[in-house]
Write a structure and sequence with these properties.
Length: about 230
């Protein structure tokens, strides 16, 4: 587990790597919100889904941040409940990550074969940016806030893990054909793929697993003595 003293360095490295992933996609991105306003599911536009997500995200974060736990006795049952909720938030983040990274990013493959111009918005790309991105922030950010307000001891030396958990999945975007870019294809392919897989592995190894593996013993600890004050 990476110490918190390396948090600024980890933050810079993480977002430099994300920049490598974002540049091909966002440099060729068309009118995303215009596309979202006209794309509907059962008469509800993608843009409306996005706005609703942001509203829910802000509301939940405000509720979590406003928690005041002074004087609350944390027995084994409450200890288990809090760590279990944290694990559920992490699992939800993993589900969204695998859904976006393992399913949606491959849905536009046929589009890339026939579209050779820039400024296009692909369907899966719009869903990832407007639906999955807010969900990453919702589950990852909520997990961090929940741990900070209710499990401060657990959070110690895990800020980097929560940062990676929340932001590394932002790399799961449909891959733009490097032929659209005015650079050498071999170089951009190599760098893009290397960074993509490094972020994917880091997400699991440095983000997901450290939190779950540390929470599991705490859950067992609470189960063994449910009425003992923790």
């Amino acid at each position: 587990m990476i110490s918190n003293k390396y948090l600024p360095i980890a933050f810079v490295v993480l977002f430099i790597m994300l920049g490598v992933i974002w540049w091909p996609s966002f440099s060729n991105l068309g009118d995303l919100f215009g596309y979202a306003a006209t794309s509907e599911y059962k008469d509800v536009s993608l843009l409306d889904f996005f706005k609703a997500e942001l509203l829910i995200l802000v509301t939940v974060w405000v509720v979590l941040i406003s928690y005041r736990g002074k004087g609350v006795v944390v027995d084994g049952n409450r200890h288990v409940k809090r760590h279990f909720i944290l694990v559920l938030l992490v699992v939800a983040q993993v589900f969204i990550g695998f859904f976006a990274g393992g399913f949606l990013v491959h849905q536009d493959a046929s589009w890339y074969q026939v579209i050779h111009g820039a400024n296009e918005v692909m369907p899966a790309q719009a869903i990832i940016l407007l639906i999955c991105y807010p969900l990453y922030l919702f589950f990852g950010g909520s997990a961090f806030i929940y741990a900070k307000t209710r499990l401060p001891v657990f959070l110690q030396d895990k800020q980097v893990a929560f940062m990676v958990l929340t932001f590394a999945p932002l790399a799961f975007l449909p891959y733009y054909d490097s032929g659209l870019l005015d650079v050498k294809i071999d170089i951009i392919e190599l760098v893009y793929r290397a960074v993509y897989w490094l972020l994917s592995v880091a997400w699991v190894v440095l983000g997901v697993l450290p939190i779950i593996l540390k929470a599991a013993p705490e859950i067992l600890k609470g189960l063994t003595d449910p009425y003992q004050e923790m």
